[in-house]
């Protein structure tokens, strides 16, 4: 049964009241401090000096001149925030008070209202194993409410996940430097790990990329409930397993830990700040922690 128009409007209003209040009371000032100064535009190139950030080296000029040169930036008065939101099948999963998709929607709303408080534009990219929808950056409350509504009612055409496609698209569509929040459970198929890493390297050279990882307790721990049918939310593949077997539960946990460690290594290698959220806990403290460590 589909969600009625009035139900959607009620959910949008409920999310606005909660998340706008949080933005006003807690996050607007912290967002400004943590991210506003990162909105930089290219100004000039000069020779490298001891103490300069090696990440600012302009390799093209350095190669031509045979002398290290770095890019100099100036702060932009206006920053663009891009919300890169995972709408794949695994987001519908949740065994506690809410699904990962619902938490992602709330966190996206908090971030959007925080950006709006400082006069910044907000855009949004919805992705599965492809870019499903692009909402160009704009200012204003009505624009943010439209993004929230889209998050609530959007149905993807595919259940798969390809973070590489989303990050690549974000890089290409934003010509000026932006702050991009990637909101996902980061359950990345093995085939997408290398393309994702390549896309991240390019993205972080041009933009400020932040990872918001939203997980559910059952992503990692399989409950002991006997023989059950498991269905992959993304591929649709079904298998029967004996969850009462300690060996089966250990195997599932090991597989999850391996994927998680691979993603952790990739994000740290690319110097991407990360907030780890879970559907069984409040996200406010973790977002504050993220803002403080920047």
Rough outline: globular
What is the H-and-E element order?
Answer: HEHEEHEEHHEHEHEEHEH
Largest sheet composition: 6 strands, mixed
Tally the helices. Answer: 9
Global structural class? alpha/beta
Mean pLDDT: 84
Descriptive terms for the model:
294 residues, alpha/beta, two-stranded antiparallel ribbon
Question: Secondary-structure map with pairings?
Answer:
Layout: H1 5-35, E1 40-47, H2 59-65, E2 69-75, E3 80-86, H3 100-117, E4 121-127, E5 131-138, H4 141-153, H5 163-173, E6 179-184, H6 190-206, E7 208-215, H7 217-220, E8 227-231, E9 238-242, H8 246-269, E10 273-278, H9 284-292
Parallel strand pairs: 3-4, 3-6, 6-7, 7-10
Antiparallel strand pairs: 1-2, 4-5, 8-9
Helix pairs in contact: 1-3, 1-4, 1-9, 3-4, 5-6
What is the gist of this entry?
The chain has nine helices and ten strands. With 294 residues, the chain is α/β, with parallel strands linked by helices.
Write up what this structure looks like:
By secondary structure, the chain is of the alpha/beta class. Helices cover 46% and strands 23% of the residues. It contains nine helices and ten strands. The strands form three sheets. A six-stranded mixed β-sheet has the order 5-4-3-6-7-10, sandwiched between helices. α6 links the parallel β6 (179-184) and β7 (208-215). α1 (5-35) packs across α3 (100-117), α1 crosses α4 (141-153) and α1 packs parallel to α9. The termini are far apart.
